[in-house]
Amino acid sequence: MTAQEHHAPQSFWTKYIWSQDHKVIAIQYSLTAIFVGLVALVLSTLMRLQLGFPGSFDFIDASAYYQYVTMHGMIMVVYLLTAIFLGGFGNYLIPLMVGARDMVFPFVNMLSYWFYLLAVVVLLASFFVTGGPTGAGWTLYPPQAILPGTPGSDWGIILMLVSLGIFIIAATMGGLNYVTTVLQARTRGMTMMRMPLTIWGIFMATILALLAFPALFVSAIMMLFDKLLGTSFFMPAILSMGEQMGHEGGSPILFQHLFWFFGHPEVYIVALPAFGIVSDLISTHARKNIFGYRMMVWAIVVIGVLSFVVWAHHMYVSGMNPYFGYFFATTTLIIAVPTAIKVYNWVLTLWQGNIRMSVPMLFALGFVSTFTIGGLTGLFLGNVVVDLPLSDTYFVVAHFHMVMGVSPVLVIFGAIYHWYPKMSGKMLHEGMGKFHFWATFLGTYAIFFPMHYLGVLGVPRRYYAYENYDFIPDSAKDLNAFITIAAIFVALAQLVFLFNLAWSYFKGKESGPNPWEATTLEWQTETTPPGHGNWGETVPVCHRWAYDYSVPGYEQDYLPQNYPEEAKV
Amino acid sequence: MAFAVVLVILVLGSVLFHFLSPWNITPIASNWGSIDVTMLITLVITAVVFIAVNFFIAYAVIKFRHTPERKAQYEPENKKLEWWLTLGTSVGIIAMLAPGLIVYADFVNVPEDAHQVEVVGQQWSWSFRFPGEDGELGKSAIEHISTDNGFGVDPLDGAGQDDRLLTSNTLVLPVNRPVKLLLRSKDVLHNFYVPNFRVKMDSVPGQVSYQWFTPTRTGDFEVLCAEYCGIGHFNMRAFIKVVEQQEYDDWLAGLPTFAQSLKKEASEKLSVKAEKGMQVAQQKGCMACHGFESSPAGPSWLGLYGSTRVMKDGSEVVADDDYLKEAILEPNASVVKGYAPIMPKLELSELEMESVIAFIKERGNETDPEHQQGTDAGKASGAELAQSKGCTACHSIDGSRLVGPSWQGIYGSERTLASGETVTVNDAYLKESMFKPNAKMVEGYPPVMPPSQLSTAQANALIEYIKSL
Amino acid sequence: MTTQTSSKAQGLSGFVQDWSADKEAFQVPWGKAMMWIFLLSDTFVFGCFLIGYMVVRISAVDPWPPATDVFALTIAGQSIPLVLIAIMTFILITSSGTMAMAVNYGYRKNRHKAAWLMLLTAFLGLTFVGMQAFEWTKLIEDGVRPWENPWGAAQFGAVFFMVTGFHGLHVSIGVIYLTIVAIKVLRGHYEKKGYEIVEITGLYWHFVDLVWVFIFAFFYLW
């Protein structure tokens, strides 16, 4: 088709800036996402300074605090996690793993990155406008989000909504490429059921993105209209600062339904690629096929589908019709079943394996452990009546950080250590990697495990300060201080990782084409890093599934997917 | 190897932490112990899985660690094992969901004998309303909200007249009686939550939501707002005091009714009732012939109430409530001398009538010194007002910075305004700040203060209090 | 070695065959697959708009202005309800007809007929947008604003402008898209590549038409 016919780019600009090569676009996405993620990391450190040592820093007043909370949340969920899993890993790995030369529409793919960058710029610009960035909480609930009384309710919220709209356009352009490439551009012999789980995870997540982002888009448009044109989609008759507003008849709960119809699939957009990647990391580094590949695929599909019918578990105490609680608690607890199966299959892959505790494997196992906790605490929150005391407390904060902030981030790190050699031809320094792992894994555990107990106690979230609440014991203040210290430690430890990325690019050990002896196609390229068109003269043919590790009857303990013998599976 | 050891330590440490941690669920004070039980069931099941998975990983990474001789097993799937795991998980899920939904059903179905209390949230304080003897809360709407009608109760709704109003932030409830809280909001989303009672629910502007519980022991409990509502969210305080039934009844009887609040407060404007009366008078066309100047068509209302008038037949009549009522309902029964019997018969409800009479009385007799005093339903001290009106949500009294400037030492001090000019904080400045908050903002603070709903007397009391800090 | 068979099985076995095939799941060009998926996503956008409209209509405190009266035109002294909308619908459906014919001629390699039919389709689309603009002007003159209108619930104007605005935007983009492709077809740009592009453009155009049918049903007729 047309994509493969264009010639290799020649100039610096077309090679590295206006590139239509999926690998370059992937790196652009990843670097931008990491940069903006570091901004959000600094914001969270500032938040923790206020929580651990209240009042110590004059510039962190209530207004600023809520702005940090909001921007930290939105950046992390959307601009880091979604962007890096889909735009970073999706772009890099999909064509390579399915045996394609590039995405189906490289020009649109390139546009997708530049729209994403524009969305980031617009979002960061909100730090510099009158009133500062929005402080409405990442969930942006009306009526408060657009009313004075909430920080950033002038330009801040407008720029946030505009930025989200631009991001959605970027995600749609990229998403169409990822889905179509997986469906239509696989190489000979590469059936859907021979694709690595990394691809299944990203593929399903992209479908979710294409169907869920529309709801966010519509709610952003409606909120912009309510703010700029005085419409009443979400605004009932209310007072603001003592004045009767002109709105009437709108429904704040409509926003919540639209937002969470997007918001719940969104967390699976982050989780499913992590699931897929972790399956491949464990399998490769344990030299054993992933246990129950077919069930794993079905679990990914079923989780994806079910993720559209659980959204109102975020709304149990919203004042919606209470009868909805029965339905959503049921669907939410049902979705736990395929998720649990995945956890079992990961650990069963280790059974009778030949496990190498490499840095990627450490991160992968760190994921399984922390995702197990995070997923289990989700069962408390999903069960509607147990959610009543826990909703809007630190139990929720601890839960979602474990499942979104800790486990997928551990996967991102593991995946970078795993694929960095393919991307650069160099190994990341192992000693620094191990330090990075231990500091991050133990540090985040120290931050978020005890936090659940603050939630059980009833300590509410989104509070700037906790002065004079009798039911909160003084020891909780000590705990908050401890958590802050741990958070600072974890934040600083990331500097080692950043240094490693840069240092290893120039001084790292040469990796060769396939240092982990992995089966998947991306490791079978002619050159490392892969050149333009990925495969040289001939595109590989796929003869087997992605998990022929330790196959009986062969000397080497892995058979690449293009290993040309009759497939045993 | 290290990883396995660390994992085991983490698991054991976590279990130990659970039993040793001082941060446990608050002692329950309501009937919702069943929620605690459901939570415990969930904890036990999830704890088993947590321990099992982590121990399995730890065991596996030691037992199957890489050695040059080892070859991993090749087993793409094991349908039987997967089937059993699915079944086991489903059983575990049902074991959590079933009790959860059963207890939830209790929450959804409010007991018939629950008494009702309305909770109104606003940025950033709470107020409460009780249905009164008729057992029915009067209709309310945002459009009725004013300085003297903070709850926005419809003055023309009969059911609202006997509603009891509580603007302080301590709600008293009787022990062992189920109560249904009807939650309303005047501005943005809020959430009424008492950790000891377990349940919570958002209050959504534009609708009424509910939660119910039965307090099972007496005591004092703290209320938290549990839905982010803007910059003062973290300090939106209220308290619940659970007492014996008799004490509750006595306390409730001491609260002002809505009808009482309709009478003139010490604010300079018309009372709510009279304000309504003015609207009714305009709608029904009274002002076409009457009014407060002399009018050829009908007697002026200026100075009318309480005065003596000569009727057509020569008799003298005092223009009191009864007379005015008759004049409205049976206009031409007795006509004032000098006027033609042209007043049309009007249809007015009892309440409309009373409101018009209040209007005639207040507007017509505005120079009457009696009205300068005004009623005050329990003069509250400045300190109490500071709490109940929500001021302390944003202004501290100990010097710490919350949302707005601390009141400690503020009186008499010099402050720099956002405009650059300096101002001395005196009575006049404080009053202006209360009613026109964003006119003279202190530099470095966000312009988020809502105008206060205070009478002059209340404002004065607050200023005295601020002086004392 | 490939596991794909060449017979086109139908029904469930065809479904299974598609998804167990290597290389591609659907035997269509990449552009067509991508357009279908894009249209699926866009369906969700309009679906959310319409659901939002329905919720707002139910929760509005004031009565909803009756569409039959609002959208009536007085022609020769007679007030004819929804006449403009009826004409607009007719035009858009006709344009789908011309589009289908263009696709047909495209596959028959009849460049000129295909291109001119596409341009006709674009012209009909432009007429539709023009009429929509006329309707907007008329309503704005009558006092309809996103935040209020003279007849009832304030949300009526908000929904009207938002939904017809986004739909009109899609139609306008379609007009531009049609024109560009038509010109390229005329120039012989697709002789070698094949005329799937005409069908892909047609898919987009039919989608835009179908969305209009739903808007017509839910907003104007209800």
From TrEMBL, chain A:
Keywords: Cell membrane, Copper, Electron transport, Heme, Iron, Membrane, Metal-binding, Respiratory chain, Translocase, Transmembrane, Transmembrane helix, Transport. Its EC number is 7.1.1.9. Residues 7-543 form the Cytochrome oxidase subunit I profile domain. PROSITE patterns: COX1 (PS50855), COX1_CUB (PS00077). NCBIfam families: CtaD_CoxA. Belongs to the heme-copper respiratory oxidase family. This is Cytochrome c oxidase subunit 1. It comes from Lacimicrobium alkaliphilum. The lineage of its organism: Bacteria, Pseudomonadati, Pseudomonadota, Gammaproteobacteria, Alteromonadales.
From TrEMBL, chain B:
It is a multi-pass membrane protein. InterPro entries: CcO_II (IPR045187), CcO_II-like_C (IPR002429), Copper_CuA (IPR001505), Cupredoxin (IPR008972), Cyt_c-like_dom (IPR009056), Cyt_c-like_dom_sf (IPR036909), Cyt_c_oxidase_su2 (IPR014222), Cyt_c_oxidase_su2_TM_sf (IPR036257). It is an enzyme of class 7 (translocase). It is found in: Membrane. Residues 364-373 have a biased composition (Basic and acidic residues). Residues 112-254 form the Cytochrome oxidase subunit II copper A binding domain. Residues 364-383 are annotated as: Disordered. The keyword Transmembrane applies. The keyword Transport applies. Residues 272-364, 377-469 form the Cytochrome c domain. NCBIfam families: CoxB (TIGR02866). This is cytochrome-c oxidase. It comes from Lacimicrobium alkaliphilum.
TrEMBL record, chain C:
The chain crosses the membrane at residues 33-58, 70-93, 114-134, 154-183, 203-221. It is a multi-pass membrane protein. The keyword Transmembrane applies. Keywords: Cell membrane, Membrane, Transmembrane, Transmembrane helix. SUPFAM superfamilies: Cytochrome c oxidase subunit III-like. Signal peptide: none annotated. InterPro entries: Cyt_c/ubiquinol_Oxase_su3, Cyt_c_oxidase-like_su3, Cyt_c_oxidase_su3-like_sf, Cyt_c_oxidase_su3_a-hlx. Gene3D superfamilies: Cytochrome c oxidase, subunit III, four-helix bundle (1.20.120.80). It comes from the Bacteria. Residues 35-222 form the Heme-copper oxidase subunit III family profile domain. It is found in: Cell membrane. Belongs to the cytochrome c oxidase subunit 3 family. PANTHER family: CYTOCHROME BO(3) UBIQUINOL OXIDASE SUBUNIT 3, CYTOCHROME C OXIDASE SUBUNIT III. This is Bb3-type cytochrome oxidase subunit IV.
